[in-house]
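Changelog excerpt

This revision adds worked examples to the README so contributors can see how folded entries look when concatenated. The first example is reproduced verbatim below.
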Amino acid sequence: MCGLGPGGKVVHSFFLSSPTLIRRYGGQSGATGAAEHFAAKAMGIINQNLDTPSLAEIQAICLIIIHEWGSRNAVRAYIYLGQASRMVQMYRILHSHHAAVSDADRFLQDESFRRVLWLLYILDCLLTSTPGRQPALSVNDTSDVSLPCSDMNFAFGNAVFVQTINLSDPSRLPTGTRTDEVGEFGQIVLATRIWRDVVQMLMTTTTETFNDNVCSGLMAEIERLRASLSMQYVDKPGQINLHITMGSGFTYAMLHCMLHCASIFINRRRLLQYVTAPGFNLESWRLTPQCHEIIDRLFTSCHSTIAMLTALEAGFDKEGIICFPIFMLFSSFTASATVAYLSLKGLTPPNAVETAGHIVRDGLHFMQDGVDTWPLISSWLRHLAVMHRVLGNDAGAASPSVGGTSVPPTAVPADQASVKDEAASNPDTNPDAMDYDQSSNAAAPQAPLNNHTASVSESGRDSGRDSEPPAPPPRRSGVTTIKDRKSG
């Protein structure tokens, strides 16, 4: 997968497992500083060879995009994304006529290119989901390109044909030839497109223009993709443990994190529409079938997301340091923040209170462990810490004798920003973001749901904001949200 699975963590995990290199090249900045050093070296080599970009150089710039994104250099990552797309286009032109090679070698060359192209497509979906950022790849770049084949066929060089992202046959399919199944990576590409469509819906829908049929259609797409998965990739209890044993745990988790995250967004948007309706009464709505359906779906997706990351962590080499891909950590944050919001609003089912506490606590744990690797997630950590603290205080106030049993307090290291500092933070001082409707981002029970949308890609430092697309107007002071701004 080259960017979102185990291979996609290479820039950081390489240095995390190499203390000597970290000390030599990272200095005071540690693993991130060492990664920055080699990213700069790699970009120098890439730019020297722009006349004849190679597949290895395109793969390298994809890793650099992920590195810059995780380091909170959103503008730089976005610009590199555009450069990578042009390199792909020129590589395609320069290699349109194959040298005399065997069919097996040609298949491996073509499949390697397709996998790089689809990795770039995934990054494009994630990094250009903000209004004002145009996709780096056009429809023509991907419409007639086969999705990646199965990893098994790729590993053994079995030349097969696979359908395109529109699930149609590629134009080069010989007459009478049947297409093979879409591979694991290809399923992640399809899941990413659904996720991007969900984000697009959130960004273009208001309470006045909301149409539940659109949400139903998107949920149907998720279910269709799930139904099309091979037996070994079906989402069911214990399945990920088998994948961890086989070495495909991260691939399995990435696919289902993408689908669960999309499902959470859809059902949060439905929830938003109900709770902001005129005359809404929480006690009455709790008794409706719509409430039970939405809450059940949210808890199912949130619990599954956290359970997958927990299993990956438990199955990881005890001598190493696990490095989750950025999107997995975002899915974890989304799941934990959603459950925290439901708990703060009193929407947690009575039989799920303890589970809710574990989901929030475990999500905070993943943020704490991940922030040293990906500085991007520092704001998610701060906001989840605030919600976790409020939940703990509420539990203690409700029942002093068992206060904190469902949501035990977790200390946040001083260098990761204290809860007190976050609660008193000024608006617009650190506009990091990775969410789309803030239905689960309230840090206190009184915070209302709202449909403000933000982006997976907004993560620039203050010094780089001048080159960002225009930001939305500042909101009134109030409760801190995950954008490190205030909402009234």
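The second example, added in the same revision:
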Amino acid sequence: SAVSIRDTHVILVYFSGFGDGNTYQLPVLNFRGAQFTFGYGSGSSAASDIIVRAEALSGDLTEFQIDPARGNKLRYVIIPPNVNVGRAAIDYSDYNAVKAAFGIKD
């Protein structure tokens, strides 16, 4: 179930934004005036989904901050418990390093 995955797997969430070309591990505290965080459902122990929150630091969010048509993307990496995640050579904040280490294709 989704709840057991949350409790047993490593879940990484990444964001790449319009016009930037970089991919950031969440939380992203300030990308063009927007903050991106993630959590699980309502925060209750029964929640079984991942929720990504995008909030404007000031005013309203714009299409440049969140619209997928502008190239804004979220990426999820779910690493099962039987995979060795303690590899010292992997920088988990670096999406490209994680992709290379686990053979992930976009």
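Reviewer comment on example two: Residues 95-102 form the longest helix (8 residues). The two ends are 25 Å apart (CA to CA).
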